[in-house]
Amino acid sequence: MDETKEMRDSKQLISSIQSQFARLSKGQKLIAQYILKNYDKVAFMTACKLGETVGVSESTVVRFANALGYSGYPKLQAALQELIKNKLTTVQRVEMAHEYSDDCTILNKVLKSDIDNIRSTLEEVNEKAFEESSNKLLKARKIYIVGMRSSFAVAQYLGFYLDIILDNVHIIRMDMGDAFEQVVRINEEDVVIAISFPRYSKKSFEIVSYAKRKGAHIISITDSLFAPVASISDNTLLVKSNMASFVDSLVPALSVANALIISVGMKEKEDIKEYFDDLEQIWKEYSVYE
Fold first, then answer.
1. Cβ distance 241 to 117 under 8 Å?
2. pTM, whole model, 2 decimals?
C-alpha cells in the first residue's frame, strides 16, 4: 500500500474487519472478534502473542492481516497504532508495557524500536518536502520553532543549531510570556517549524493556525498525515514514532532535525566557518573548555 492509502485504511480498519467477517476462516474470525473488542491491546502485541492469546497459530495471524489487504502483520499493527495513539492516556500506555519484564528486555526492545522507527522514516520521508524545507529556511526573514511538552526538546535542539547558522531563529517558549505574543509580528516572509507528536498539543496547533493565517510558510515534523499540524502545513516531514511504551520515541525526529541542520549548514558553509573561528578565539580567551 502507498502511504496515503495506509493512512486512509487506518481509519477504516474496524469497519473493514466487520464487513469482511463472514468471509474469514474460523481461526481468523477468532482474531477478528478479539481485535474488535481489544484493538488497543492488540496494537502492542506481536503476531506470536496475539496467536497465543486467541488460540491460533502465528501463521493464521499473518494470513488474517493478508486477508485485510496488508502485506504483513506489522502493517496491520501499525494501522491499529495509528487509530489509538492519540487517544491513549499515559496510564493506559503504562498498562500496555506488560511485556517489559526486566531491564535487559527493556534496553533491547526500546533500542530496536528506535532503530525500526529510523529505518521506516528513511524509507518514507518525502525527499522533495525535505529539500523545499531546507531552501525555505535559507530564505526566511525569521524562523519560528514550536514544540510543546516532550516535543520541546527537539524544538530546542533544532533551534540551537539553526540559530548558529542563520542567526534569525526564535524558539517559542511557554515560560517567556504568552506564545501568541511571540508570533504576533509573523508574516509571509517567515517560516514556522512545528514539531508535534501524540498526544498532539492543542496549543501548538492554535499557534501554527495563527501563523498560517498571517501567511507564514509552515513546515511540520510529525508522525502522521492525520496530525492536526499536517493538515495546514506546506511541507510535511513524516517521522515514524511508534510507541515502545508510555514514552514517545523522539529519536527519528532528532535525526530529521539533524539532517535539516546539516542541509542548511552545508549551504552556508563559509559563514559558519567564520563564525566558529570567532567562537574558538572566545573559548580560548575565556577558558570555556578544558
1. yes
2. 0.70
